[in-house]
Design goal:
heterodimer; A: mainly alpha; 2 domains; B: alpha+beta; elongated
């Protein structure tokens, strides 16, 4: 499989697609090439002849790779995967850890005094529910990835991006609640002092709610990062194990096909 | 989903899509098996290279006409196998009719010129 692996390694480094798509495309090709090689060997060819024939049939030209890249290049998925790649640098990791600790401290302090939740109003509860769901799904994912080590391609990505989606939901609820608080105070306004006090209280509640929403969304996004990064690494190792590719994403020195 | 019709501009691509969908009507197949079957049934006429095959397969999968399923039950590890979806079955059926109509029209033109 040396020549086939070399061809796939070259294709892997050229194919500018986010993970796991890149690994999956190449793993599919690898599997089919391997099966075809065995088929030719069963038909009486030597290993070298079989490899040559397989490479001849599998045209991994720049044009073919560009076609594949074009098909799989979905902007949203690409962005999500790039987010976790970018977070691999030391500086980014430190920033993320700092933000995680900061938001956790703010959230816990607020909850300890219970003021922030009271001030945030009823909208804070669905935001917290979104955070709880994000943490729960991450715990399940971590259990599957680290404890029972279920790395099957079918299930490894299941619910992976849920915490990130819930972070978005939490943030949207926060803004919706803020709008609700201020809008209700605004439509019932009058020229009385009580009304102005009511409006100020609404702004105050909105600030509390946004603090909760932003902190929980940040935490949800961070717990997503933990599992997303792990999954990407597993998929890259799998690709490297299969055909000895240099795992890591395409760098600027490598000619890439898009 | 667009109604299937034979695009003269993309005749090769349309032809390859029709071949793949028709073969998958017979049951699940791996990518290389599809290429083999095409070659065996159509002779060298349909021996398309795999570099052409996979973009078509992935495009059809994106359009939900076929479904790629990973399996690690085989003797040599993980492999991807393709099956036709219900949508794909319907599409393939109408596409076949479009091809028949296209070929008849084409033969009609050829015939006129000969006579």
């Amino acid at each position: 499989m040396n020549r086939i692996n070399s061809a796939l390694r070259a294709a892997y480094n050229k194919l500018a697609l986010p993970q796991p798509i890149r690994s999956r495309v190449l793993l599919e090709l690898w599997g089919d090439m391997d099966d075809m090689r065995h088929l030719y060997i069963d038909r009486g060819m030597s290993n070298d002849e079989a490899e040559e024939r397989v490479l001849e049939r599998f045209d991994l030209s720049d044009g073919a790779l560009a076609e594949l890249a074009k098909i799989h290049c979905r902007p949203m998925r690409r962005l999500l995967d790039q987010l976790s790649f970018q977070a691999r640098g030391i500086l980014e990791r430190l920033i993320l850890i700092f933000l995680a600790v900061l938001s956790l401290v703010i959230l816990i302090r607020g909850m300890m005094t219970q003021r922030i939740l009271i001030e945030a109003g009823p909208f804070a509860w669905p935001v917290l529910a979104a955070l709880f769901a994000a943490i729960l799904s991450t715990v399940i994912k971590i259990y599957k990835l680290y404890i029972i080590q279920d790395h099957r391609p079918r299930s490894i990505r299941r619910l992976l991006h849920l915490p990130l989606g819930l972070a978005g939901v939490g943030l949207a609820l926060g803004f919706l609640g803020m709008y609700g608080h201020i809008f209700s105070a605004w439509v019932t306004r009058s020229d009385t002092i009580e009304s102005i006090r009511h409006l100020v209280a609404a702004v105050y509640r909105s600030a509390g709610l946004l603090t909760v929403a932003m902190s929980t969304s940040l935490l949800s996004a961070l717990v997503w990062f933990v599992t997303a990064d792990r999954v990407l690494r597993i998929e890259e190792h799998e690709a490297a194990f299969r055909f000895g590719a240099d795992y890591g994403h395409t760098d600027s020195n490598t000619s890439s096909i898009q | 989903m667009e109604s299937p019709r034979v695009e003269v501009i993309n005749l090769t691509r349309s032809c390859n899509e029709a071949l793949i969908l028709t073969l998958l009507r017979e049951g699940p197949m791996h990518g290389y098996q599809l290429a083999f079957e095409c070659e065996q049934r159509g002779g060298s006429l349909f021996a398309f290279k795999h570099g052409t095959l996979y973009p078509i397969l992935h495009k059809l999968e994106k359009e939900e006409l076929i479904r790629g399923v990973w399996s690690d039950k085989g003797p040599r590890g993980k492999r991807k196998c393709y099956t036709l979806t219900d949508r794909g079955k319907e599409y393939s059926k109408t596409q076949r009719e479009s091809w028949r109509a296209f070929i008849l029209q084409f033969l009609g033109v050829i015939g006129k010129e000969e006579s």
